[in-house]
Write a structure and sequence with these properties.
By secondary structure, chain A is α/β, with parallel strands linked by helices. Helices cover about 45% and strands about 20% of the residues of chain A. The longest helix of chain A has 28 residues. The longest helix of chain B is centred in the N-terminal third of the chain and has 36 residues. Classes of the chains: A alpha/beta, B mainly alpha.
Chain lengths: ~400, ~325
């Protein structure tokens, strides 16, 4: 009970802290001129909530995209021609679908809400979508990749990240064509995501001439990988692909290299994180990774400058968070320029703007061009440009290029 | 058929893997079996005593020694000893405290068995979540909890590099694997001697056989119970150190769950309450799990392990070496 009472005390304090922080950011962002306060008086106050794991064990996967979103909001607020002032609201679900409903209720009941950046994970997306749909609030996810999200009939839902079918397929081609693997060993964590990913890899890798010499499912959270490593060794594999998450892949790679397993290691977006680098240590060197997030480019520098010591070493989806705030901002501008004044009008204006983003007239983001299919899935003239390959070099996740460039279309 | 050919192919590799894992299971199984021997209680919080060993390993290497690079030679020996001693003492101390707070009050009041079980599960959860809160941002009353663990796995600095010591039938045995196996054998041997030849050990055996008669013969039961918890805790602490150093896995508040269940299984397999049985059960379980992978695949590790357990219990209901308790 005491704990709860303390937390109730803390909640307003935390909100206050966030507001103060946001305000001070605005002032800093304006440079010498004290930008925010001297903006034109007719700016409309709107709130964009960022929904995902602000706290909890998985927050390292979400914080970078929230940081990216805040950075873009700060830039927009400092721009005198931008007709609104965006407050980034905290919708903290800790990444869990169970905790989403009350958080979503809070977002909906805020009269200033015009859009949502997120939900960051697929599970919380399923738990939140119906409510946002009913309330008519556009919600744009930067990182939820489950294929079924586009089949829920949500008209206010948008996704700016490529799904697992594209990723797994391109990973399989990469293994066969670029790593020139002849004998591939597949390991997954028995979860829907990991298994689905390895299934896609299997299809394209075998089609491109690699032979699957073994396949194992190892439950997430396993600490001792020695038996599987001996199995890989005995199979004579030259490449191992792991479908699963960072913590497990780190243990696998570390123990594999310790056990003298000399192969190419590769995994997908579930393993791209600072947790993987920290846990695997020097064993992470040389490991290949793929993720539909652009960790390189001009944005990386901007991000590091803005966040300094608070910047993540592997800022997954930071550029995507920045771009989602960018399209929401463009939507707000288009709505207000079109005569919208109330939050309800702005919401539908944002939706109209997002619906207008097609391959022929995309939004030019920092990570990539953003355009949607009629189902609101991300699309591009060449979808391979949406996935990026990386290799860990000297403890850094280093970009090799996008799939279109590396696989040659 | 692939099962047999694969097992033959990988026999020595998997034997080595099984022995290494089994040695850790055995050390952890002792804690379950000894407590069961004297109190007929499954101490479900024992996995958290193990977890404390892993956390002290992290804290000692990161905070006390401030190491982040591999150490070699005599320095490495000193580091390992410098980690083992505080980890074992912390785990032993925590086990004694656990007995004092969670079990002794119930024993004094002659509470039914079920109360002990619930108390054990409660203590297990309490310890786990206490460590979740140790991220430097939480308070108990007005005392700030130290930043040690937090909600996500905390990597332990790589201080120990792996190298091959010798090759036997094409299988490389590394320094880490040999240290676990030899270290466990040495500790199990010392423990076995302790229980069989010392006065306290005789007390433990006497209480296990018949606590009433033992107390009539002048055995101080409380002292025996505390000793049992302490010794079991020491072993769990050592197992925790080996687990994270040898497997290179991060310390985590939930790390004890799976090894705990496996060690409890090992204790039952060998005959719960029977110290040598726990050693045998641990090694055997580790081997079965290792052979299961080339035989049936990694999906089947747990199925195989528990199928073996059921089979053994069908033919020997009290475990391989038999239960050793009164009644």
């Amino acid at each position: 009970m005491a704990g709860r009472r303390i937390r109730m005390w803390l909640a307003p304090l935390a909100v206050l802290a966030v507001i103060t922080a946001a305000c001070s950011n605005n002032n800093n962002g304006g440079g010498g001129g004290g930008g925010g306060s001297s903006a034109p008086a007719q700016k409309i106050d709107v709130t964009v909530y960022a929904q995902g794991a602000w706290t909890g064990p998985y927050n390292y996967l979400v914080i970078p995209s929230i940081q990216g979103g805040k950075l873009k909001a700060k830039e927009l607020n400092a721009d005198p021609s931008f007709p609104a002032t965006i407050t980034v609201g905290q919708a903290d679900t800790q990444g869990s679908g169970d905790q989403a409903p009350p958080v979503v209720q809070n977002v909906i009941s805020d009269p200033n809400t015009v859009a949502v950046l997120g939900p960051a994970f697929s599970g919380e997306s399923f738990a939140s979508g119906d409510s946002y749909e009913q309330a008519g609030i556009p919600f744009v996810t930067q990182s939820a990749t489950n294929a079924d999200l586009s089949k829920q009939g949500w008209t206010y839902w948008y996704r700016t990240v490529a799904g697992d079918i594209l990723q797994g397929g391109d990973d399989g081609k990469f293994i066969a064509q670029v790593l020139k693997s002849k004998k591939l060993f597949l390991v997954n964590d028995k979860e829907a995501y990991g298994q689905g990913l390895t299934d896609q890899v299997k299809k394209t890798a075998t089609a491109a001439g690699a032979q699957i010499v073994g396949e194992e499912g190892v439950a997430g959270g396993t600490d001792d990988w020695s038996a599987v490593i001996s199995q890989v060794k005995a199979s004579g594999a030259d490449t191992v692909f792991f479908g699963g998450y960072d913590a497990d892949f780190a243990k696998f790679v570390k123990q594999g290299k310790d056990g003298g397993l000399n192969v190419n290691w590769m995994s997908g977006d579930g393993s791209v994180s600072s947790t993987f680098l920290d846990s695997a240590g020097s064993a992470s060197d040389g490991v290949y990774l793929s993720i539909a997030s652009n960790l390189g480019g001009d944005f990386a520098q901007k991000y590091n400058q803005a966040y300094g010591s608070k910047a993540s070493t592997v800022p997954v989806y930071a550029a995507e968070g920045y771009d989602v705030m960018g399209i929401i901002g463009a939507g707000i501008k288009s709505a207000i320029d079109g005569g919208a004044t109330t939050p309800e009008e702005i919401r539908s204006g944002i939706k109209d703007y997002l619906d207008g983003l097609t391959v022929d007239s995309p939004y030019h983001g920092t990570a990539k061009d953003i355009a949607f299919t009629p189902e609101h899935e991300l699309t591009a003239a060449n979808e391979d440009t949406l996935l990026f390959f990386y290799q860990v070099k000297n403890g850094q996740v280093t970009q090799l290029g996008d799939a279109a460039a590396i696989l040659g279309g | 058929m692939t099962c047999v050919t694969n097992v033959v192919d990988q026999f020595w590799d998997q034997t080595r893997n099984g022995l290494t894992l089994g040695a850790i299971y055995a050390m952890l199984a002792l804690g379950y079996t000894m407590v069961y021997g004297v109190l007929q209680l499954i101490n479900f919080a024992h996995s958290e005593i193990f977890m404390i060993g892993t956390v002290v390993t992290l804290y000692a290497i990161r905070n006390w020694f401030g190491l982040s690079e591999p150490v070699v030679g005599i320095g490495l020996v000193l580091v390992i000893i410098g980690v083992l001693i505080p980890a074992m003492l912390a785990s032993g101390g925590a086990a004694v405290l656990l007995e004092r707070l969670a079990y002794r009050p119930l024993r004094r009041r002659g509470a039914p068995r079920l109360s002990f079980l619930i108390s054990a599960i409660g203590a297990s959860l309490f310890i786990q979540y206490l460590f979740v809160l140790m991220d430097g941002n939480h308070y108990i009353l007005f005392v700030r909890l130290p930043a040690i663990l937090g909600p996500s796995p905390a990597p332990i600095p790589d201080v120990w590099t792996t190298h091959t010591v010798f090759t036997l039938f094409g299988t490389n045995w590394t320094n880490k694997q040999l240290s676990v196996i030899l270290g466990a054998v040495a500790m199990l041997f010392v423990l076995d001697r302790f229980v069989r030849t010392t006065r306290l050990g005789r007390g433990i055996r006497a209480v296990a056989q018949d606590p009433e008669v033992a107390s009539m013969m002048g055995v101080n039961i409380d002292r025996i119970v505390v000793t049992t918890f302490f010794v079991g805790g020491l072993m769990a602490g050592a197992a925790g150190v080996m687990y994270v150093l040898v497997l290179g896995v991060p310390a985590f508040w939930f790390i004890g769950f799976i090894p705990g269940i496996k060690a409890f299984t090992a204790a039952v397999l060998g005959g719960i309450g029977n110290i040598r049985g726990a050693m045998l059960g641990g090694i055997l379980l580790g081997m079965v799990e290792a052979y299961a992978v080339p035989c049936f695949g990694a999906d089947w590790i747990d199925v195989t392990a528990f199928a073996v357990l059921v089979l053994v219990l069908l033919f020997r209901p009290t475990g391989l070496l038999g239960e050793q308790v009164h009644n």
